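hey m, so remember when u said the tokens were messed up on ur end? i reran from scratch. heres the input so u can diff it against urs
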Amino acid sequence: MTQPDIIVIGGGAAGMMAAGQAAQAGARTLLLEKMPLPGRKLGITGKGRCNLTNSAEMREFIAHFGPSGRFLRQAFARFFNVDLMDFFEDLGLKLVTERGGRVFPASGQAGDVLRTLRRWLQEVGVTVQTSATVERLVVTDGRLTGVVCNGQEIPCKAAILATGGASYPATGSTGDGYRFAAAAGHHIIDIRPALVPLETADSVTGRMADLNLRNVQARLLVNGKKVAEDFGELVFSKSGVTGPIILTLSGLAVDALRSNHKVELSLDLKPALDEQKLDRRLLRDLDARGKEPISSLLRGLLPAAMVPVCLDLTGLPAERTAATLNAKERRKLGRWIKDFRLEISGHRPFSEAIVTAGGVETKEVDPRTMESRLTEGLYLAGELLDLQAETGGYNLQAAFSTGWLAGRCAAEAVQEGDL
């Protein structure tokens, strides 16, 4: 192609949306992706099903990002969940909305989302260059003038940084964008894994590896005080715990661990029963099944894989008959079921994190355009920014929305001669 007006660095959700919108708005657009194909990380999101967005209304949607969510209001006002759904359906991709407002391709295949986006880029005239390693941005007198890629400087009027975070580095998200942004003067909030499995201090969880609990109340304790809780699904692993509720709580856990605080997880295995109702349930079971071993009684209360763990941690002999359980032992068992404690010793690495916490400080980016407040002609979008939410389609919508806004605004600035 002739010299591009706009170079987009990174071919993930934000980058592909930014490139396509810039081209559709009339700008000569070059998309640089260092992997053999764009969208590798997008292809594994939502366990390979690609949770594109969530149907929540804007106020609730923004709340999932915490205090930083206010930054997204401008982008969401221009391009939000309904707009994204219309965008994909207009391109022929059918969508479905599932439990919790989560929106997926009807096929359940992330590959269909990728094929739709790649076809669209071709249709709107984006030049896509793969295996393209960007080394640095060219900034002259506070203004972006080009990009050095594969040893060659490519002049341009604007560039959009959409390199993603540092999670799942095998897909190409290796944190390059933080270095580029820092070189352009931006402050980088310390990055750390988010929506990441947690590790426990002992081997108890390994004995229950792959056990899935669907209706659990999990409380996160920092220095003995509850800081957050969630209800839903949890999965034990060889090294610790994962699953939706653990991922939701993991951001606070990671930050507490980084500050050398004591972090624990308190699991209520019977959240539908308060302590008194649980005690009455135990009394009924003891009365009806008193001749059975305690281990047999517990299998009516707990998954089989948890029974030996419960017996070990409560000190109850497996072969004692249930009728021999005294009141003190019964109360101890009830407390364990309502407050199964796990000490959190660490977290899994970036390679297992769904998103990256931290990143480019949002106050240095204009939320109306996504242009850098420090370097003219430089725009930033997607996970590179210090914006993180829970699972449920929120993070991907933020990537698409900020990408859409960056692409549109960069193209407008180029066409109006501002760049």
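this time it looks ok to me. The chain has twelve helices and 19 strands. if urs says something different then somethings off w ur setup not the seq
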